[in-house]
C-alpha cells in the first residue's frame, strides 16, 4: 500500500456547499502522484459534494474522519 504525503492543509469550514470545490480545484491541479491535501469542512452536505467531485476527478479519498463538529478529509492524486 502506498502512502500519500500531505503537502497542504486547507480549512474550508467557513465555506458552504460547492464553494470549496473552486478552492480545491486549483490546489488539486498542482498535486503530483503520491501527494495529498488535508481538507477541513463543517457541513455534511459539503462533504458529500467533495466526495462526489473526488470520484469524478479520478482522485482518491485516503481518509475521512469526523472530529467533533468538523470533517477531516485527506485527498490524494
Structure overview:
With 77 residues, the chain is of the alpha+beta class. It has one domain (5-76): Translation Initiation Factor IF3. Helix content is 31%, strand content 38%. It has two helices and four strands, in the order βαβαββ. The chain has helices spanning 19-29, 44-56, and strands at 5-11, 35-41, 60-67, 70-76. A four-stranded mixed β-sheet has the order 1-2-4-3, covered by helices on one side. Strand 1 (5-11), helix 1 (19-29) and strand 2 form a beta-alpha-beta unit. The radius of gyration is 11 Å and the shape is globular. This is Response regulator SirA. InterPro entries: TusA-like, TusA-like_sf. Residues 8-76 form the UPF0033 domain.
List keywords for this structure.
alpha+beta; four-stranded mixed sheet; globular; Translation Initiation Factor IF3; 38% strand; 31% helix; 77 residues; single chain
Summarize the structure.
The protein is an alpha+beta fold and 77 residues long. It has two helices and four strands; from the N terminus they run E-H-E-H-E-E. InterPro entries: TusA-like, TusA-like_sf.
How are the elements arranged and paired?
Blueprint: E1 5-11, H1 19-29, E2 35-41, H2 44-56, E3 60-67, E4 70-76
Parallel strand pairs: 1-2
Antiparallel strand pairs: 2-4, 3-4
